[in-house]
Amino acid sequence: MAKIDAFFKLMNEQGASDLHLVSGQQPVMRLHGELERVKYKVLENDELKAMLYEIAPENKIKVFEETGDVDFGYEIPGVARYRANFFNQKYGCAAVFRQIPTKILTAQDLGLPPILTRASMLHKGLILVTGPTGSGKSTTMAAMLDHANKNRKDHVITVEDPIEFVHQSQGCVINHREVGLHTKSFAAALKGALREDPDIILVGEMRDLETIRLAVEAAATGHLVFGTLHTTNAAKTVDRVIEVFPHEEQGQIRNTLSTSLKIVVAQNLFKRIDKKGRCAALEIMVCTPAISNLIRESKTFQIPSTIQVGKKFGMQTLDDAIMEVLNKKWISPEEAYDKCMDKAKFLPFLKTPPDDLAG
Q1: What does residue 125 show for φ and ψ, rounded to 5 degrees?
Q2: Contact yes or no for 220/184 (Cβ under 8 A)
């Protein structure tokens, strides 16, 4: 057993999502969204480095020493998988570990709207799950893929950096590929995937032009593609995809996206006040003919109002989703106000008016 495993077992017992190990400080865990120090001695650089190197593959240590940061996956069988990031900082090395549960939560477990499980049964198109870091994008996408795995008979290829949720092949045949370990890059894996008879392709992160281009092309040519982006709402997601392309290509990509994009899920996590834990609020944009026209005609600023009137298609705005969990008294008015889009809508719920910085 590696020395660091004791911290992972403590994380598991406490229900922590992240572990921070920093030279010159005590270990810290993130519990229900907030950082809490672990009652343990201050970690010295050499001691921490030895602890980290004990679990890192040799090629990842080499990358870390050459570049100053590296990502990889680590697993304790029967406990959990962890997404690891090593980096250097002023006082020495540091690392952050995100726990990825071994058990994949189903769409029912997460309370996902039925439109998302229906989307996972589509035969082609692009499904984007977006939100800030730590908002549960991977968990939502894993639940949608789990539904497809149980209800379809298709070939699924996932491309991640590192592999997060591990799906056992059920109705589908699933191949997990890790960037840096099984393939050189997201783009290289996507190029290869098109020759590997895939029905569903999951792209862990659409982070550059070539990856986004290949994902959109795959969705437009008869594959179902899942991808994630770090954007805060549906309209900004569409803008982000288009703006990554050179100006002269943007008209063409608008046309392609208007027909290939099927659903955008933009989500945020909130700390619950009724019990321990967190809950998600989801904005959902379904690519109806009206939304497709807005994308094609460069009128994405009108998307929020179209989502507002599209409830019969399964659409909902982020603010409506936040209002729903606020009315259930699951979250505080202060956090609802902090993360909403239309501040005026949530202002009456606050006990004390916000200061100038909060707005």
Answers
A1: 120, 175
A2: no
Express each pLDDT in 254-298 by its tens digit.
999 999 999 999 999 999 999 988 899 999 999 999 999 999 999
Count Cα neighbours of 311 within 13 Å in the Cβ-side half-sphere: 6
> Tens digit of pLDDT for each residue in 79-105?
888 999 999 999 999 999 999 888 899
| Residue-level length of the chain | 359
Q: Which of 257, 222, 196, 226 is nearest to 120 (CA)?
A: 226
All residues at 6 or more sequence positions from 219 whose CB lies less than 8 Å from its CB, including other chains:
124, 125, 126, 225, 260, 261
Q: How far apart are CA 162 and CA 177, in angstroms?
A: 9
Contact at 8 Å (CB) between 157 and 178? Answer: no
Q: Give the bridge partners for 125, in sequence order.
A: 224
| Sign, Cα dihedral of 243, 314, 122, 131 | positive
Q: Report whether 127 contacts 226 (CB < 8 A).
A: yes
**pLDDT: which is higher, 118 or 341:** 118
Q: How far is it, in rounded angstroms, from Cα 31 to Cα 19?
A: 9
**What is the arrangement of strands in the sheet containing 92-101, beginning at the earlier edge strand?**
34-37, 28-31, 18-22, 92-101, 80-89, 69-76
Beta strands at 261-271 and 125-130: parallel, antiparallel or unpaired: parallel
In the prediction, which pLDDT does 356 show? 57
With contact defined as beta carbons under 8 Å apart, do 29 and 16 qualify? yes
Over residues 329-351, the mean pLDDT reads 93
The encoded tokens of residue 67 equal: 């570049």
The position carrying tokens 């995937």 is: 193
| pTM attached to this predicted model | 0.87
- List Cβ neighbours of 181 (8 Å cut-off, separation of 6 or more): 72, 162
Is the Cβ–Cβ distance between 197 and 173 less than 8 Å? Answer: no
Instruction: Tell me the domains of the chain and their CATH numbers.
Output: 5-101 (3.30.450.90), 107-347 (3.40.50.300)
